[in-house]
Amino acid sequence: MTVTNQAPSPRPVVATMLNKVPQVTLLFWLVKICSTTVGETGADFLNDTLGFGLTGTTLVAAGALAVGLAVQFAVRRYIPAIYWTNVVVISVVGTLFSDNLVDGWGVPLSVSTLIFAVGLAAAFIAWYRSERTLSIHTIVTRRREAFYWIAILFAFALGTSAGDWFAEGMGLGYLPSAAVFAGAIGVVAVARFGFKASEVLTFWIAYVLTRPLGASLGDLFTQSKADGGLGFGTGAVSDAFLLIIVGGVLVFTVQQRSAGRRDRAEQGLVGA
Length: 272
Prior knowledge:
272 residues; mainly alpha; 8 helices; disordered N terminus
């Protein structure tokens, strides 16, 4: 009797991609903070200056985010212009989530902060239980990418509520609130680089903290002097920070292309 060895049935393969998020550098944090500031000022510009109203602004921003994320999920690698456009838009949407709860439904800032903190924690728990990692260095599947953007949305909403709670709810004012959050980010940096704290933990703590820092800076620049701001206006401030973001994206794009050329050159040498 002839015995044939049958190959085992192949397991389902999860399609992987190149990592879909940028490297974390000082420029990354600068552009991220500017994005959070535009999230605050941009939402106010659409809502108040252009007269869209809270509901209209929310619908416009949510629609733009849906389109942007569809494009982001369609590509198979990190493309700076697409990625950072989504960060700016999701920052606006996160701001609007907080504003709808607080201004639309009358939820106290302390409660909205708690709600979004619980939402972010739930997103992290679901992410870790599914993937066994929260690292941003391995965003190489659709599912991890989905968890990543959900976490970012909650992080922005949480940061908006927390920033407004400190500046307005507690009466600290915009500049002192910005100083508090900047100091907290400094503590996280010391923990990471001075005491070798967890890279994943410190990244996400800093990511959340940069949102209220950006929101406080946005309010500081745009609110009237009578309300403790500098009164520059939402349009001018949004434009200024958008220019910084565009400049950062151009640098990211040049760096990415240079790295790609180096990789191809090295592969050519190896092949030779």
